[in-house]
Amino acid sequence: MDEPKALYEKPILVKYQNGWSDKFGRLQAIIPMTHIDGWRVSDLIDKYGSPLFVFSERTMVRYCRELKELLALRYPKFQLAWSYKTNYLDAICKVFEREGSWAEVVSEFEFEKASRLKIPASRIILNGPYKTESVLEKGLKGGARIHIDHFDELSLLEKVADRLGVRPEVGIRINCSLSSTPNWDRFGFNLENGQAWSAVKRLSFGKSLVLAGLHCHIGTFILEPSAYREVTAKMVLFIKRLREEMGISIKWIDLGGGFASTNTLHSQYLPGKQVTPSFSQYVEAIGEGLEGLNGPTSDLPLLILETGRALIDEAGLLITTVQANKRLSDGRRALVVDTGIHHLITSLWYKHEIVPAQEFSGTLEPTVIFGPLCMNLDVIRANILYPPVKTGDHLVIKTVGAYNVTQWMQFITLRPNVVMISRNSQCDIIRRGETLDHIVALEEVPPWI
Ligand SMILES: Cc1ncc(COP(=O)(O)O)c(C=O)c1O
Fold first, then answer.
1. Domain boundary among 253, 288, 307
2. 220, 255 in Cβ contact below 8 A?
3. Which tens digits make up the pLDDT trace of 94-107?
4. What pLDDT shows up at residue 437?
5. Number of the ligand 1 atom closest to the C-alpha atom of 257
6. Strand, coil or helix: what is 397?
7. Are 350 and 238 part of one and the same domain?
């Protein structure tokens, strides 16, 4: 049999630059990832196609339990609520539910999705700046915790409660100024300008709703744990003022989400794995802030966290296949792979770690990794030092579990299979890849065309 021909690439001269070394004087090692939780990457592709999202149940459970164990050491009454928008695939939500999480939803669609999974409304937190009258009604009927975002919603909720003849306990969403992170003032009532206090007065004047909870989500990917100490301390002061001046006792305090995952932001110098605060740093900061609460444990408010990305990001991986190697006009090497920003919106703000799924040799070279879209912005990594890889090789894009399989879009190509590998290494599809039939099923061609 003839030997297969060696790949030929027309030689060009490129000024070789091995990138900048980091502050420790060395480059980040690229370690191939040949297996995911006991499965060979190439076997996964053979069975489920490429590209492929893979979720590790083991990693999800490890993160979830670690956070709960740390909280238990610091505060006696706490509850996690899974942030649906971070990833609302049924299987993902079920794993978190099995681990004891409630559901945190921000739309009627998400509320319906949680209800479909048989999560009782009393374990659903209803957030978000736009809640329809019908979702407010469903929430009130089932006893969901509704966090009011603005005055118009307050009036609407009063109207629905009056119509249903109920006087429910509700929460208000608060935003405030912090020294360590910019203020997200578009959600909730502002603390410093007195709006939050006006909302309290307005609620108590209306008499239809009973204030029992405070919610404050200070933002996302918060790299400064002390922000949580600061916000918690502000909430505690507010709780005291409510008790002293209005006789209101707060039963729950919800600090939203916001813990950073181990991804690396485009603006970050050091890799996320080196600089992302640990869960214990965040929990310690919250614990310190809560120290201002006094009284017996039975009187303490329930602490709720809606941690999203930090619980799921690392559990998600995206496997892709190299479709082409090419040279750009300036001599830079470029790869074209079969997944792009339509599946991986997070590549817009993260330098995702991308490693070959097979052993490699050869010199690292500055490389651009493009997706398959006929769009200039379809760039997964604009500049990564990469070893030679050839057409058909697989790459593993790490830490993609948060916000991608909810914010992805069907554009130019179809959305791929998503699988989950269980803790005993069983692999199953948790969302089937789309087909042309799925896409056209919603379309109509009017008869007059
Ligand atoms: C109200 C609320 N809760 C929880 C989350 C989850 O946040 P993260 O993924 O940063 O933990 C978000 C996301 O922005 C949110 O808006």
1. 307
2. no
3. 999 999 999 999 99
4. 98
5. 11
6. strand
7. no
Ligand 1 center from residue 219 Cα (angstroms) = 7
Q: Is residue 22 pLDDT above 80, yes or no?
A: no
Q: Are residues 197 and 260 in the same domain?
A: yes
CATH number at residue 166: 3.20.20.10
Evaluate: CB of 87 within 6 angstroms of ligand 1.
Answer: no
Print the domain residue range for 414: 35-55+314-440
245, 290: one domain? yes
Substitution candidate for ligand 1 out of 82, 85, 93, 185 with most atoms within 8 A of CB:
85
Over range 210-238, report the average pLDDT: 97
Q: How far is the CA of 307 from the centre of ligand 1 (A)?
A: 6
Distance between CA atoms of 358 and 224, rounded to whole angstroms?
37
* Tens-place pLDDT, residues 84-135: 999 999 999 999 999 999 999 999 999 999 999 999 999 999 999 999 999 9
| Residue 377, Cβ density class (10 Å: 0-12 exposed, 13-18 middle, ≥19 buried) | exposed
From ligand 1's centre to the CA of 384, what distance in Å? 30
**422 and 368 within one domain:** yes
Residues 276 and 330 in one domain: no
User: Residue 119 C-alpha to ligand 1 middle, in angstroms?
Assistant: 19
**Does one domain contain both 335 and 375?**
yes
Question: Which pLDDT does position 300 carry in this prediction?
Answer: 96
In total, how many domains does the chain have? 2
Residues 217, 291 within the same domain: yes
Q: Are 396 and 344 in contact (CB under 8 A)?
A: no
Looking at 307, 339, 370, the residue that finishes a domain is 307
pLDDT value of residue 26: 55
pTM flag (> 0.90): yes
Nearest atom of ligand 1 to the alpha carbon of 310: 11
312-to-59, 65, 67, 87, 118 alpha-carbon distances in Å: 8, 12, 12, 8, 22
- Cβ atoms of 271 and 220 within 8 Å: the answer is no
Cα(152) to centroid(ligand 1), Å: 23
171 and 45 share a domain? Answer: no
Q: For residue 235, report the distance from its CA to the centre of ligand 1, in Å.
A: 18
Measured from the CB, is residue 128 less than 6 Å from ligand 1?
no
